Amino acid sequence: MKPALVDDRYLSEVLRGTEVPRLEGRDLFTTGYWYVRLCQAVLARRRISGVLSGPFASLPDSIRSQATAAVMQLPDAIGLVSLRELAPLMGGLRRYHSLNVLGMEALAAAKYLDADVFLRTASPQLQAALAHEGLSVQLAE
User: Fold this and answer.
1) What's the pLDDT band for 68 if we cut at 50, 70, 90?
2) Adjacent-strand bridge partners of 5
3) What is the CATH number of the domain that holds 120?
């Protein structure tokens, strides 16, 4: 089974202890930018609850503490490919794809890992680039 490259919303679910049957039995990875976005949402402690921060805010205190600790120290079971490996690949992929840096990192990581990409929300440009590179994307049901 191919590894799973998960976006920030899937990563949020995993770190909150939510069972995600589609991901069972797969090696999990995320990207640096998806991880950064989740950290910013959860750790900024803003009064406005967003799509990434809201699920953490609604957890009971003890579970929220554990989930927040997992955000602060990403579990070893979740891989994160270094930009040291991805930057040259991102540079080369730029010849064929006009994605923002978040999308380019996701595309490069998926290609580097030969992973299936799991997205909670559609990203037409990223999805098209993944398809062009022969990579699979799984949208939330």
Assistant:
1) confident
2) 29, 117
3) 3.40.50.1010
